[in-house]
């Protein structure tokens, strides 16, 4: 169920800028509680189902919160299994978004393995466009972005303004390190994608993800050798 917008775009931008300053040093749970109080049902959490840390934090702060998952049609079975397990054990409502075309329909129109020939277009069709559509029901969305993941994420604010979508973007664990994530997972017994125990440090679509090599940053196994390190959702 969605409700009418509470704020104008200018008000949303002002809220994002103010909260980004005031909540910079706040604990992740407090950031999520602020989002829930401010946006009510027009706030959601997105999850790639690499791990369920942000979904778990959000379920504690906002029981029943919407957790939005993009099913590109190219996920590892382990990722779909993690999504199903999150839905089964956490107090959240998983919302699965799908692209306009199935993989077979996309292959018919663009040719097979578009991900190898034009990954930017493939991501635009299978990730960016369905997310844009799905987020229309919300004024604010949370991500699991962390500053230590890669140089492109080093300046991620805990609350910022998503200019492209004109929404408030909340990254409650932006300041966390991998050690913080690991400690939270251990302390709370949080679900993780089994691939994280199999050499993968970042999990995306199967054709575009490999295990990370010694000394590489966490996202180096994504689109390796293709001159790309973000799908476009967070650009
Ligand atoms: S990550 Fe790869 S398979 Fe997935 S949408 Fe992007 S290009 Fe396509």
Automatic annotation (TrEMBL):
It is found in: Cytoplasm. InterPro entries: PAPS/APS_Rdtase, PAPS_reduct_dom, Rossmann-like_a/b/a_fold. The active site is at 231 (nucleophile). Transmembrane segments: none annotated. Its cofactor is [4Fe-4S] cluster. Keywords: Cytoplasm, Iron, Iron-sulfur, Metal-binding, Oxidoreductase. Its EC number is 1.8.4.10. One of its GO terms (molecular function) is phosphoadenylyl-sulfate reductase (thioredoxin) activity. Belongs to the PAPS reductase family. CysH subfamily. This is Adenosine 5'-phosphosulfate reductase. It comes from Streptomyces daliensis.
């Amino acid at each position: 169920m969605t409700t009418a917008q509470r704020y104008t775009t200018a008000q949303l931008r002002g809220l994002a800028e103010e909260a980004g300053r005031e909540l910079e040093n706040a604990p992740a749970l407090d950031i999520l509680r602020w989002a829930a109080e401010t946006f009510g049902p027009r706030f959601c959490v997105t999850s790639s189902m690499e791990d369920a840390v942000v979904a778990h934090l959000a379920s504690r702060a906002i029981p029943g919160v919407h957790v939005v998952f993009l099913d590109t049609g190219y996920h590892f079975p382990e990722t779909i299994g993690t999504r199903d397990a999150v839905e089964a054990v956490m107090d959240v409502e998983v919302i699965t978004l799908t692209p306009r075309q199935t993989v077979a329909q996309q292959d018919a129109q663009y040719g097979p393995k578009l991900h190898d020939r034009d990954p930017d277009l493939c991501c635009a069709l299978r990730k960016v466009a369905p997310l844009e559509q799905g987020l229309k029901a919300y004024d604010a969305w949370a991500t699991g972005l962390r500053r230590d993941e890669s140089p492109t994420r080093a300046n991620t604010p805990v609350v910022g303004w998503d200019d492209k979508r004109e929404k408030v973007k909340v990254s409650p664990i932006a300041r966390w390190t991998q050690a913080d994530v690991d400690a939270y997972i251990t302390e709370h017994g949080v679900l993780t994608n089994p691939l994280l125990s199999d050499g993968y440090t970042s999990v995306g679509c199967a054709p575009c993800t490999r295990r990370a090599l010694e000394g590489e940053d966490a996202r180096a196994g994504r689109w390796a050798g293709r001159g790309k390190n973000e799908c476009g959702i967070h650009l």
